[in-house]
Every structure is written in structure tokens, then in C-alpha cells.
Specification:
The complex is a heterotrimer of chains A (293), B (302) and C (307). Chain A has ten helices and eleven strands. Chain A is α/β, with parallel strands linked by helices and 293 residues long. In chain A, helix 3 packs parallel to helix 4. With 302 residues, chain B is mainly alpha-helical. Helix content of chain B is 75%, strand content 1%. Chain B has twelve helices and two strands; from the N terminus they run H-H-E-E-H-H-H-H-H-H-H-H-H-H. In chain B, strands 1-2 form a two-stranded antiparallel ribbon. Chain B is globular and about 75 Å long. Chain C contains twelve helices and two strands. In chain C, helix 3 crosses helix 11. The radius of gyration of chain C is 26 Å and the shape is globular. The chains are: A alpha/beta (293), B mainly alpha (302), C mainly alpha (307). Chains in contact: A-B, A-C, B-C.
């Protein structure tokens, strides 16, 4: 009886392994083109990347794997060779492109695939409607003096302490906000709630009346409202909309990038061409971002 | 020519099998050493020159990707881990010990079985689910019932980690109480003690080593918790001054930031250095717990 | 004690001291019951609330459909399969090593410093934080062994993590086999391994299986070790046919339910809260189910033990 059980178990394990091994996706098809593309990086763009992947691979044998993690993760993976296309919601730093050149032998090539307006969110019942960039810098920046809502506006004084919601430092959104709002040479004030993704910044702000946070404008929900931004206190403020991002009047708009090692070839090139073409751009518009044309 | 007897070929295969078994037995030591080796290997450049060790351990400023001046101080993170563990243990110890005493001394067969099963099922809940519960259920609860400005904070994390460590404390505590010989209980009862007095005056002192071990292992579990704290503590770099402040732990920092680092750069090495610190902390805790438990075995009264 | 100087009166009536003690004991008993209730009831309430919020999306198609429409709709199939893959492959790796190691510790190991060291090592492995296992996985399997970010690297990492639990459970099962069984075998001239293979192992198989099943449940829930060693945000999985059941090869990266829940709660845009709760509900049901199987098996086999 025991022998039968042992034999049966061994046989089934072997059978499972054979069938599973046959599911092993080969990395190249008959043309020598890769048939698995790895696309990783920006959290801001991860939903976009996944929508592209879903749309593009319909009916094809090609597989596109999407990973998030942050723009920093994407660029790091590109450098290490663990991914083919890196999404970044910030421009690659010179240090990073030098590192790619040394490690991989070629310069990275930048493709701008869309634009995103970075919105500043507060709870939907918050009394404020607009805010200026220098006030934001005093709230978020290292050494900034503003800690309570009463210092920003009398209407908001009852909300008490400002709960700063930010992103973790692997995020391109984090880096872009630092550059555009705080100024290149200034760090963030420590002690902000550093969320993992674009979505949970908005989710937390929606649940917390005294919170302020920044995220891509495509992540808005009904629980929050986006503040109009002005460059300096007293200037006219601009709302984050697709038109304002397109015509440049919204001050914190950033390009969305895809980086590849050198010029893309084969299936990667086809994919990027498709992304920049009207079909790929339609996905960009559907998700609430600004197309690149 | 005499055919090779079954005994000789049996002896051969016995030899091989015994050696395979022996190697597997030694594998545990091999893996512990391997873990330390591989983590230390990646962290070594940071320890030997890359990072200023005083700044690493005493500075609360963790700014690894700063454009101005990268800073690698883990003090705030260390405080976060320790405070979170402290709060979690403050909640888990009384509840866990109470439950252990109840299961071991105060209830009979059927109830005992049911409760033990419930505790085991509690232990089976994955830590992501706990983190999710902290984020979506406990967070709003905290905001409505207290004056906390935000729902994800030290209190939230402390409660969730307490619930995660609870099954461990209960089961080890119960084992410790079970290990006390019945003769102790019988002697006390024959002297007229009530059940509670038996527990309080006889069992606690007799089982104190085992209960201490339960506490230590619960602490080890709490310090090592990653996903739950990542989701429900607010993940903010500061030294929490009140229960309602968001904070961050060592474990969550590694989980959140490892992906962004390029293999080999200073940030990457610093994160592995945090891993070494964590490994060292839990190693020491386990060592102490083991010594304490051994104390029971060599105790002549036990 | 009754007052013996008074020969009349009820000798068995309780004194004031005894009455006070009994009252105190009642209070203490109520207190402890409340403590246990305070522990169990909130947890049951939370889990109930989880299922209540998940109710709108729970259905058979939720389990068997792939995530669709930017992961805001559809089901959990691809992550579920990924979790199964990781759990089963890691089990195939660590069960043999763990069981043999436990056999060594229980049957072969002499009582010297090396055995003490091994026991200490097992205890330590059990206490290592899960993210440290993740770091180890990156350093040893992804980088050093060159597996890259893949199912096999993640499974190896999970296997090392599960080792101490398998060893401990197997040891207890082996130790519960009475010595007399082994002695009877040796008396008949069987070698150590023959004895183990024919008598000890079959009789402790129930305990071993229980431990193994419990470990599957833990592996299905752990996220930190697989974060950097094998999971991805999204990878397309066929909707039907053999490829939907076996979508991943050993060198592919996979989706996993525990990571998927984390993503739905923190990164995926536009996911309804019901769906997030749904993913949590599916994951909890999976682990609770596997654990219940293990528990009921243990109870059944314990009742059938012949000694």
C-alpha cells in the first residue's frame, strides 16, 4: 500500500514537472526577435504601461511584462540588464546615463511618450482652492517654516497640523516635485508620510481632512480635489487640466519618458513606435494623461 | 563464485544514504552562515569605508537619494522599529499570556481544542492581509475615534503587529505552562489554593523561563515584520513623539527602497547594511531565548 | 477549617476565607474569559467585515478570470496560479532537505556541540525576518547563482525560509514514534536506514504531512521574500487551455496573489474598494482553507493512531 502511494506521488510529480517545463516560454521566436519584453519603472506610468501591454499584445504571441517600483527602479533595472524598456516620470540624471554607458556599452536613448500634470491634492472638503509654489516649498522643503494650516490660510486654521503626504525616494514623481517645486538644491523635510504608489497618496488624502499630497493628475478620485497652482503668492493660479498641461500654462507639467539602451531594435522598436502612434496615444488620453503630439 | 550478498550492497547504499542525511542535517548551519555571508558580502563596502558608522547609527536623517548631500542615518528607523515592537508587545503580552493561562488552566477539553484551533488559524493569516486591514479598516477607525490627524501611524502599526505576534506568544506560553509538572499544581491545591492562586503563585514563577522565551520570540517576530508595517504605519521618517505619529521601520525601508538601487552603489550597500543589523538583532534575541529555555532543562527542580 | 471546639454545627460549611477565595476565583475566571474574547472577537469581526466588503465581487469568475481592464476588473486567476507555483515548487525543494535533516537530528545525531549548533541554527532560521530572506535571495540566487528574477529564484528563497518549520514539524512527528518500534527492527538485523524507511517514516508520515501542509499555507502568504526575487506587476496569462494552468516556466517571473493584493491597495488606479477586499478575501480563504486541511488531518490521524 505504501509502495503504491509512493509510486503514485512520484509519477504525478514527474508528470507535473514535464508539463510545467513545456509551459516554459522560450525567449526568442523563429525570427530571433525577443518575444518577451520587460517594461519596468515609474509608478505614475505603471497603469499606462499595463494598458499599453494589454492593448498591444492582443492576438500576438509577444508577451510584455510590466513592473512598477518607481522611476529609479526602472533605470536601475535597465542598467543591470533586467529590463528592456524603463519608464521614467523624470529625466534620467547624467550620473545614471554615464553608468549605463559604462555598464552596457551604449548611451541610453530617451523617448517622450506623453505628458503628465502633477496635481496637488487636498481632501474634498478642504477650504483651500489654490496654493502657490513658494508656499508648497515652505511646507515640503527642508527648513521650511510652515507646519500648520493656520499659517497658510485662516479659513483652514481648524485643520491643525499639516499632514504632508509624499512618495518614497525611488519615485520619479518624488524627484520631479523636488526639482520643480522645492528647487534643485533643496531636500524634502523629513517626517512626511511616504507612500508606495501614486494611488495611495490620493487614497490617504481622501481619508484625511488635514492632508496635502501630490500625484499625477490622472489619479484623481471623488474624495479629493486638485488645487490650482500659481507660481508665486498673488499670481493667478492655473488648474491642472489636459489643455493647461498641453499649452504650458500649468507650471508643474512633466514629460513621461521611456528609456532604452541605444536605439531600439526588433520587437522593442515596433512596440515603441506603436506607443507613439495614434493607437498608443489613444490609451494615453483614455487614462487621463496628455498625449505627446 | 558466490553472488554478492544483499548485505554488502545494503551496506553500500546505507553508507551513501547516511551521508546524504548527514549533509542535510548540517544544512541548517550552512544556510544560517550562507545568509549572513551573502548579506554581509553585499553590505561590506558600506561597512568598511563607504559609510560613516557613527552617522549611520546615530543620525535620524535618511536621505539616500538627495541631490544636495546623501545622508544615511538609520536612527529614526531604528527608533521606529523598537517603539513599534514595544507597543506591540505591550498589547500582545497581557492578551497572549492571559489567553495561554486560560487555555492551559481554565478550560476543559472541547473548549480547549476549539481555542487552540482558533489561535492556529489566526497564525495563518498572511501579513499582507494584516497590513491591508490596518490600512483600510483600522485606519479610518482610529481617525474617527481619536484625535489622530492621520490613520496610519504608530498606534495602527502597534495593534496590527500585536495581532500578528499574538498566536506565537499564546502557543509558546501555553507550552511553557504545560511543561510545569502536575505535581506542582496538585501540591498547591492540596494546600488549599484556589485556581488563580495556583497560577499566580506557583505556575508563573515555575514557568517564568518559558514565558520569558515567549516574550522574546514575540519580540523577534515583531521586529522582523515587513509587509504589514509597510502598509499601515505611514512610512514617515521621523522619531515618533506620540502614538499618533506616523513612522517607519528598518524592515519597511529595505522593502520599499531595494528595487530602486543599482546593484553595487552606496544606497544598495546601505540597505544591505540595514539587513545585517536586522539579522544581528534577531540572532541575539534568538540566542538569548535559547539560553533561557536551556535554563529550564538544566533546572534540577524541573 | 471548621471550628473544632464546637462539636455541633455543619462541619462542611465553607468559611469566610473559602468564600472569598471562591468569589475571587470566579472573578478571575470571568476576567480571563473576557481577555480571550477581547482577542478572538475583534479578529473574527474584522475577518467578517472583510468578507462583507468583498461580497459584491466574490464569485466563481472572480477566481477563474484573469485580471482585465487594467487590473480594475476581472479576477484573480493569474496571481492565484503564481502563488500556487511558488508554494509548490518551493515545497518540492525544501521538503526532501527538511525531512532528511530532521531524520538526521532525531535518529543519527550524537549529543555533541555540533548537534547543539545545528539546533541553534534551526531556531535562528525560524527567527530571521522575511525581508532579510529576500535580501539573501537577491544576493545568493538572483545574483550569485545567476537565476535572475524568476520563479525558481523566488521558490528557492521561500524554500530556505520554510526549512526550519519543516524540520521542527518532522522532528516532532519522528519523536512520537515509540522507541520500541525501532528496537524491534534492529533486533531483526535491519540497518538504521532500513528501519527508518520501513517503519519510522510511514508511521510519522501523518505528522510530516501536517507540517508540510501548514508550511504551504505560510509560503502562500509571504510577500517580502519574493518582492525582489521573482514577482512582477503584470504578465499576461492565457485565459483558457493548458497554458492558463501552466503559464510560467522556471525562468519567468510571475504574478502572485499576496503581491497582487499589495498592488491593488497601493498602486493600481481606479480599483474599487470591493475588489481590494475581494483579493484579501480570496487570499485569506486560501490560507485558512489550507490550514484547516492541515488541522483536520492532524485530528483525524491522531484519532487513528495505534499507540
Amino acid at each position: 500500500m505504501n509502495k503504491m502511494v509512493t509510486n503514485a506521488v512520484t509519477l504525478s510529480i514527474v508528470a507535473v514537472m514535464i508539463v510545467a517545463a513545456s509551459g516554459c516560454g522560450g525567449k526568442k521566436d523563429s525570427n530571433g526577435n525577443k518575444n518577451v519584453i520587460t517594461n519596468c519603472g515609474s509608478d505614475t506610468m505603471v497603469n499606462l504601461a499595463q494598458a499599453w501591454a494589454e492593448e498591444y499584445t492582443k492576438g500576438k504571441e509577444l508577451k510584455v511584462q510590466v513592473l512598477g517600483g518607481g522611476s529609479g527602479v526602472g533605470i536601475a533595472s535597465l542598467t543591470d540588464g533586467t529590463c528592456d524598456m524603463a519608464n521614467a516620470s523624470r529625466r534620467m540624471k547624467k550620473k545614471e546615463s554615464d553608468r549605463i554607458e559604462t555598464k552596457r556599452g551604449k548611451k541610453p536613448e530617451e523617448h517622450i511618450v506623453g505628458f503628465d500634470a502633477l496635481a496637488v491634492y487636498v481632501h474634498k472638503d478642504h477650504p483651500l482652492d489654490e496654493i502657490s509654489i513658494d508656499v508648497l516649498a515652505e511646507i515640503y522643503g527642508d527648513g521650511g517654516k510652515i507646519e500648520n494650516w493656520s499659517e497658510v490660510s485662516d479659513k483652514a486654521a481648524s485643520l491643525g497640523k499639516i499632514v504632508r503626504v509624499s512618495r518614497q525616494n525611488n519615485s520619479g514623481t518624488y524627484a520631479y516635485f523636488r526639482e520643480a517645486v522645492l528647487g534643485r538644491k533643496r531636500d524634502y523635510k523629513l517626517g512626511s508620510i511616504d507612500q508606495s504608489g501614486s494611488k495611495d497618496v490620493v487614497a490617504l488624502v481622501g481619508k484625511t481632512p488635514g492632508a496635502i499630497g501630490y500625484s499625477g493628475m490622472g489619479y484623481a478620485t471623488d474624495e479629493v480635489k486638485m488645487l490650482r497652482i500659481s507660481k508665486a503668492k498673488g499670481d493667478p493660479s492655473v488648474a491642472p487640466t489636459v489643455e493647461n498641461a498641453k499649452n504650458g500654462s500649468y507650471p508643474i507639467t512633466r514629460p513621461l519618458h521611456i528609456y532604452t539602451i541605444g536605439a531600439p531594435t526588433g520587437s522593442i522598436k515596433d512596440y515603441i513606435d506603436w506607443i507613439m502612434a495614434p493607437e498608443g496615444q489613444k490609451v494615453v488620453i483614455d487614462l487621463g494623461y496628455v498625449p505627446c503630439k | 563464485m558466490r553472488r554478492r550478498t544483499p548485505r554488502i550492497s545494503a551496506a553500500w547504499s546505507e553508507f551513501i544514504i547516511t551521508w546524504i542525511i548527514r549533509l542535510c542535517g548540517w544544512s541548517a548551519i550552512f544556510f544560517v552562515l550562507a545568509i549572513f555571508f551573502f548579506i554581509f558580502r553585499e553590505a561590506a563596502p558600506a561597512f568598511f569605508g563607504g559609510l560613516d558608522m557613527t552617522e549611520f547609527f546615530t543620525s535620524p536623517n535618511w536621505r539616500p537619494s538627495s541631490e544636495v548631500q546623501p545622508q544615511f542615518g538609520i536612527f529614526a528607523l531604528l527608533m521606529g522599529s523598537l517603539l513599534l515592537t514595544g507597543i506591540a508587545m505591550l498589547v500582545a503580552m497581557p492578551l497572549g499570556l492571559g489567553a495561554a493561562v486560560f487555555i492551559s488552566e481554565f478550560c476543559g477539553g472541547k473548549t480547549k481544542e476549539v481555542l487552540k484551533i482558533l489561535v492556529e488559524l489566526l497564525a495563518a493569516i498572511p501579513s499582507v492581509v494584516w497590513g491591508f486591514i490596518g490600512l483600510m479598516v483600522l485606519g479610518p477607525l482610529i481617525m474617527t475615534h481619536t484625535s489622530a490627524p492621520v490613520g496610519v501611524n504608530l498606534l495602527n502599526g502597534g495593534i496590527i503587529v500585536a495581532l500578528i505576534s499574538l498566536p506565537l506568544v499564546v502557543s509558546i506560553g501555553e507550552d511553557a505552562l504545560k511543561a510545569v509538572p502536575d505535581s506542582y499544581r496538585e501540591a498547591a491545591i492540596s494546600l488549599g489554593a484556589s485556581k488563580w492562586e495556583v497560577v499566580y503563585r506557583v505556575l508563573f514563577p515555575a514557568a517564568k523561563n518559558g514565558l520569558l522565551a515567549a516574550l522574546l520570540l514575540g519580540v523577534g517576530r515583531a521586529i522582523g515584520e515587513t509587509m504589514a508595517v509597510l502598509m499601515c504605519t505611514g512610512h514617515a521618517i521621523n522619531i515618533p513623539k506620540s502614538l499618533y505619529d506616523p513612522m517607519r521601520t528598518l524592515t519597511a525601508t529595505i522593502a520599499a527602497e531595494l528595487g530602486e538601487t543599482v546593484h553595487g552603489d552606496l544606497h544598495y550597500q546601505a540597505l544591505f547594511a540595514i539587513g545585517v543589523v536586522l539579522f544581528a538583532i534577531t540572532f541575539v534575541i534568538n540566542l538569548i531565548a535559547d539560553i533561557i529555555v536551556k535554563g529550564i532543562r538544566s533546572d534540577p527542580k524541573g | 477549617m471548621a471550628d473544632l471546639s464546637r462539636p455541633t454545627g455543619n462541619v462542611f460549611a465553607s468559611t469566610a476565607l473559602e468564600r472569598r477565595k471562591m468569589l475571587w476565583e470566579k472573578i478571575v475566571r470571568i476576567f480571563f474569559t473576557l481577555v480571550v474574547a477581547a482577542m478572538i472577537i475583534p479578529v473574527l469581526a474584522i475577518i467578517g467585515y472583510l468578507f462583507y466588503r468583498a461580497w459584491p465581487v466574490l464569485s466563481l469568475s472572480f477566481i477563474f478570470d484573469n485580471p482585465a481592464d487594467n487590473m480594475t476588473a476581472g479576477g484573480m486567476w493569474a496571481p492565484l496560479v503564481g502563488t500556487f507555483y511558488l508554494a509548490i515548487i518551493s515545497l518540492l525543494i525544501d521538503a526532501p532537505i527538511g525531512i532528511l535533516a530532521a531524520i538526521y537530528l532525531n535518529e543519527y545525531a550524537p549529543d555533541n556541540w555540533l548537534t547543539r549548533a545545528i539546533n541553534l541554527a534551526v531556531l535562528n532560521l525560524a527567527g530571521v525576518p522575511s525581508i532579510v530572506y529576500g535580501l539573501f535571495g537577491v544576493g545568493a540566487f538572483v545574483l550569485f547563482a545567476g537565476m535572475g528574477k524568476s520563479v525558481i529564484a523566488a521558490s528557492c528563497t521561500l524554500a530556505v525560509m520554510s526549512l526550519p518549520v519543516i524540520i521542527t514539524a518532522t522532528r516532532e512527528a519522528l519523536a512520537s514514534v515509540p522507541m520500541s518500534f525501532r528496537e524491534a527492527c534492529w533486533n531483526m538485523g535491519a540497518t538504521k536506514w532500513q528501519t527508518i524507511r520501513t517503519i519510522v517514516l510511514p508511521n510519522s508520515l501523518s505528522g510530516i504531512l501536517t507540517g508540510v501542509i501548514f508550511e504551504i499555507c505560510r509560503t502562500a502568504g509571504e510577500t517580502a521574500p519574493i518582492l525582489f526575487t521573482g514577482v512582477v506587476f503584470f504578465t499576461p496569462v492565457a485565459d483558457s487551455g493548458l497554458a492558463s494552468v501552466f503559464p510560467y516556466g522556471p525562468s519567468d517571473a510571475c504574478m502572485a496573489l499576496q503581491y497582487h493584493l499589495f498592488l491593488l491597495a497601493t498602486q493600481v488606479r481606479g480599483v474599487s474598494e470591493a475588489m481590494q477586499f475581494g483579493a484579501a478575501a480570496v487570499l485569506i480563504s486560501l490560507t485558512l482553507f489550507i490550514n484547516s486541511v492541515s488541522i483536520s488531518m492532524r485530528m483525524y490521524l491522531r484519532s487513528r493512531k495505534k499507540w
